[in-house]
Amino acid sequence: MTVDYLARRIGMFVAVVFVATSLNFFMPRFTGQDPIATRLELLAAEGVTTRAEDYAALIETYNAKFGLDKPLVIQYLNYLSSAVRFDFGESITKYPTRVGELINQAMPWSIGLLVTSTLLAFVVGTLGGAVLAWQHGPKAAFELILPPFFLLAAVPYYLLGLILIWLLAFQAKILPLGGGYAPTTLPDWSDLGFLWEVFKHSLLPALSIVLASIGFWALGMRSMMITMQGEDYMLQAEAKGLTKTRAFLRYAVRNAVLPQTTALALTLPHVVSGAILVERIFGYPGVGRVLYEAITGFDYFVIQGVVYIIVLAIAFAMLVIDVIYPLLDPRISYSSS
Amino acid sequence: MAVDTRATGSTVNGQSQRPAMPSTVEELRSWGKGDSSLPAIDVKNLKVYYDSEAGTVKAVDDVSFTLQQGERLALVGESGCGKTTLGMALMKLTKPPGYIDGGEILLDGRDLVPLNDEEMRLARLAEIALVTQSAMNALNPVMRIEDQIFDGLIDHGIKDSKGNLRNHVYDLLQRVGLRESVGRMYPHELSGGMKQRVAIATGTSMNPKVIVADEPTSALDVVVQRQVMMTLSRVQRDTGAAVILIGHDMGLVAQFADRIGVMYAGKLVDIGTVEQIIEDPKHPYTKLLINSVPDLEEKRERLTGIPGIPPPLVDLPSGCVFAPRCPSVEDPCRVLAPANTDVGDNRHVMCHLFDLYVTMAGSEVG
Fold first, then answer.
1. What is the ipTM of this complex?
2. Is residue A191 domain-shared with residue A46, that is, in the same domain?
3. Which label site among A56, B61, B112, B176 has the fewest CB atoms less than 10 Å from its CB?
4. Which residues of B touch A229 (CB under 8 A)?
5. Residue of B125, B133, B143 lying closest to A240 (CB–CB)
């Protein structure tokens, strides 16, 4: 039953999100670091001095303010309820900015960059790999173009990012060094000039993700296509006198793309975490940078908020793939056994 | 314009225009039904070789045979004798490093060997169709059965309403003993026997002149094997197509075929009607093959196998390929290859016991 299948998948989704968010609550607290002390050290570094007797009172006030004086269980329950309400309170390091506000500002940047570049790499890589393995296709061109991408697939995003910055921004000065837009401009999304600037700034980080992952998708697809060509139904497709295009698309690619889809689902978390480093390197104003700054400032609430959103996003993507997979492959049925 | 490319086939034997290919289901019904006096398929000196490190593998060497319209020929022989290679070559589906080194495949008078890829693509299914060895995996797992049959029709220029196409597929399915609802099913929902029936339905979807059935029952259990053979038999009668049945089960093919061709080491060594081959095997290899089949009615002391193994195809004996295993071997057999000899009644044998050389030598001695 489809309803039954959906119910089980959604149940799984909830369970995954629950476990991940719980880990997300306990992990920072088990490190033994104190976010309030970190915050005060930060203030001290900025030259704000406090008298010794005030210091204890300050810590107490802060702890009370952020609810960190309550027993762990109560904190955990508060945290769970805040997760359900999508309200993670105020940032410790950037008080009084609310966590939600930080995330809302950063989210469109990340989604725009990550979704576009990941899907672009997936589509280009998969098609390229398919053509490369297809004995009737325009192989020669692809045989020249694709191998460098296989090499790049072995290079991590962030390393490639650094190389690109050095080459294109630092040496050639074609593209900006980093950031989402030039520090001197005021964001105005209705201005075409600003949009162009955003596009130019996103090119390098996008390029580092795309370049590093095209080879991965192309290699996977190529090997699947080679396996498919040994299948009897490919011989049968030829014996049926099908056109090469139809045999290629509807018989070979159609089957080879199934494991690719699974791989996409499985690498999604990898893509997200890898992109965090990319954002950091490029000073890109996305969720990755927010998370990075929260971790260095030991900002419980921001970490919790960001990780929760990432967990939700990945779990949701998995759910979507689980739901559409039976549509792609009739052998996977919605029924239980 | 599509019609133009399809209609201009090469003209052979002074034949004028080939009939235009059908473009509707209605036209498809009469397609291939024209009464032709030419043989359905006439294979002349066909050679299929493979280049390998060790040398040239002569997988099919100088094979000739003729199949009349609606005739059923079974090709038998042990594994590696070249029967599947021959079947694939008839469809021009030989894959590198294999290639057709020479010969002619006259299908209804037109030689398939010089055809280009596109002409051959159109000939497949429409004029010569394949029912494969392992129908289990011969279906695309992610497509409905009817869509897989539609594909072949559409790519051969059948432009008809979805309803007409679907009705045609239903007719095909019913003819092979399947319910209409099978059309809407996916391959994994079918049993092995059902898939094999679908393969037969697909192969006959355009009323081809010739069907190459490559071990269509080898993956099935004995009961289903028989049912599938009966289905193939019925469909053959209905469509009037000539069938080349490739198999190794002498008993099974003898029930189906009109004629049997025996292959050994890439050569067609013996070909004749089922009665001729079974009752009066001429070639020593055929004799041994018949003797190795158990007979239910006749009590035989024990079954005889054939001693020895087939020769490696890269390094064939210089004389007769069967000489090293032959019980009736004579000295000339080891040096001179026997020719294909007509021994009367359209019976051909490739053995010195029957060809001119030995007869002459014998008469000289006598």
1. 0.84
2. no
3. A56
4. none
5. B125
